[in-house]
Amino acid sequence: MKAIALDTYGSPDDLRLVELPEPKVAPGEVLVRVKAAGVNPVDWKLGAGMLDAVMETRFPLISGWDVAGVVERVGFDATEFAVGDEVYGYIRKDWAQNGAYAELVSAPVRTLAKKPASLSWEEAAGVPLAGLTAYQSIERLGVDRGDVVLVHAAAGGVGSLGVQIAVARGARVIGTASERNHEFLRSLGAEPVTYGEGLA
Question: Which of 43, 139, 182, 191 is in the most buried spot, having the most CB atoms within 10 Å?
Answer without folding.
Answer: 43
